[in-house]
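Hey, resending since the last one bounced:
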Amino acid sequence: MDLERKINRREFLKMAAMAWFSMMVPIRLFRRIAEAAEGVPAVAGQWDRILVLLELNGGNDGLNTVIPYTDPRYYDVRHRVAVPRDKIVQLTDTLGFHPSLQPLLPMWKEDKLAIVQGVGYPKPNRSHFRSIAIWETASDSDQYLDEGWVARLFTEGAPPKSLTADGIVIGNGQAGPLTGATMRVVNMERPEQFLNQAKSLNSPVRQKSQNPALEHILTIEREIQEAAASLGERLRTGPQLKTPFPKSRIANHLNVAAQLIASRVSIPVIKLSHGSFDTHSGQADRHVRLLKELGEGLVAFQSAMQEVGLWDKVLVMTYSEFGRRVQDNDSSGTDHGTAAPHFLMGGKVKGGLYGKQPSLTDLDDGDLRYHVDYRVLYETVAHHWWGIRRDFLPKRAYQPLPCIA
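The structure tokens again:
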């Protein structure tokens, strides 16, 4: 028995040492493996559609992203960081974009950009780590879950195993919503390094174990390794996009995502991260740069998808752990807040405003009151994008938004 334990431990450590891909192991790993032993039948969803999850890391200032420029209160409480009215890109008679998001205006006019206003959740938490965990697991503020919302959705309504992988994380962000014991997730922290590593994968992992739990882990590792090799080959041999991408980190990662999609890689989710938007001081210059990189990168991504005729197959959705406080601070920045707007964009998006712009006078301890529970976005993806069950989240039903054709 001791020898078997040593062997199993050695196998587990050998598996864990391969850190260039991402496979997140929740605390309830062995229970989840036991549940998965019987296999989960694939669901007949629209699995040729790709969700691009774009995390605005650090907490983006929603009030300076979609600006209520006709509300005098906005300028009364933001003496240091308010965007001058004559520079705001008008979307409606009352709301406008930060000038750095000017590149997104054509997408807005084409009705391919939906803005969901006042997104948040009850009893908000202002800690980066806790609030992003809430968003990623689709939990209540007092509920602790160890599985991402996409992983849970894929347990309830599994995509076919014939897909190359369940998801890809591009950049140094965490798997987040893709975290789960049975998820096949490939992490491309540095796409160039990934390509070099993928070249060396001539054969899959051959370890075997008599322990069912370890064997299940090794099986998933073999699948991830094979997926990584396949993705590397697709990136090397796929079509070369003519669309130029600007020079920024997020644009580079969007370029990689576009190359993968153009290569017809069968992946339902690609996750990216941009930021940090944690603008406690000197917000103006940093926010200008971050939003400029975001807007330019997204427009290039849209153009690339249109170039290969796949814009209708892609849905981009932003998310962030929270917005910022209504009142700016003495360091010409903003502190951790609550509700904020988020974007959905793609060829099948029915653009416009959804939800309700939060009041700047009816506040919750100095913060915006939310009007749309963030889990509504997830139900919208599940039901209207992939065409699978919309009640996978516990406790209550969330009505999907009618923003996807």
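The two ends are 58 Å apart (CA to CA).

Sorry for the duplicate.
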